[in-house]
Amino acid sequence: MKILITLIVSFLSLLFSSCKKETDLPYTPQVQNPDSTAVSKEKIDILALGDSYTKGESVDWELNFPNQLKTVLLQGAYAVTGIRNIAQTGWRTDQLKNALLNQNADIKDSIFSIVTLLIGVNNQYQGGSIATYQKEFEELLQLALARAGGRRERVFVLSIPDYAYTPFGNGNAQISAGIDQFNTINRNITQQYGISYVDITDISRRGLQEPVFVANDGLHPSATQYKAWVSRLFPYVKSALK
Question: How far apart (Å, rounded) are the C-alpha atoms in residues 170 and 184?
Fold first, then answer.
């Protein structure tokens, strides 16, 4: 009997000891995959297609809207490798198309992370036909899509700004009506292709009431206006890069 009691006590001691060791084990929290919320590590290059509004006439080169987009991306810890800007003051759709087709092989054979397209103000200003603009804008959109590797989400079309709301335009309602007509064309085509359309025309129409939105030449957007464009464009770009 004495031996039996001793065995029972020994068994209970071992049992309690085992439970205590399991209870005293340190708690290890579950750690999420550190890459699950990280910024994309893609090396981003930007192709910007357009006219004076893309070139950034009358502002420092670093302050045109493609370069301001690059700055915002860098601030967001995106890896931006560079910008290729194919844009000149005065270009119509046909001139941009010819310039793009005649670029070196490094452009014609390259795939870019982001492609922007803003074109048409000179078609309107020079009295070009809507039918011609419609045809050539679609051709340019197809070229932009090709340079994005066929990825519709990586192409971004910006609407034509309204230069009526500058000292040069002096509030001319006919200019605004013409800009609206051309923007209807580029918007409809862009949406048919399922490509992002970023309407910045309303921003440009702050130019007469807010002179800071107009460059010193009295016609083109200022760096401040370009910054407002990028604030509207960036959410589309960020979403596409995810």
Answer: 23
Looking at residue 90, what is its pLDDT? 98
- The Cα–Cα gap between 162 and 3 comes to 102
Say if CB 94 and CB 125 are below 8 A apart. Answer: no
Q: How far apart are CA 213 and CA 169, in angstroms?
A: 14
Query: What's the whole-model pTM score?
Result: 0.83
Contact criterion met (CB below 8 Å) for 185 and 138: no
Spacing of C-alpha 65 from chain mean position: 10
Q: What is the pLDDT of residues 8-37, one digit of tens each?
A: 444 444 444 444 333 333 323 333 333 334
The pair of three-digit structure tokens given for residue 196, joined into one six-digit string: 């992002």
Q: CA-to-CA distance for 115 and 237, rounded, in angstroms?
A: 10
pLDDT score recorded for residue 172: 98
For 88-116, give the DSSP string. Answer: -TT--HHHHHHHHHTS-HHHHT---SEEE
* Domain with residues 43-241, CATH architecture: 3-Layer(aba) Sandwich (3.40)
203-219 per-position pLDDT tens digit? 999 999 999 999 999 99
Q: 235: Cβ–Cβ under 8 A, 6 or more apart, which residues?
A: none
Q: How far apart are CA 50 and CA 68, in angstroms?
A: 16
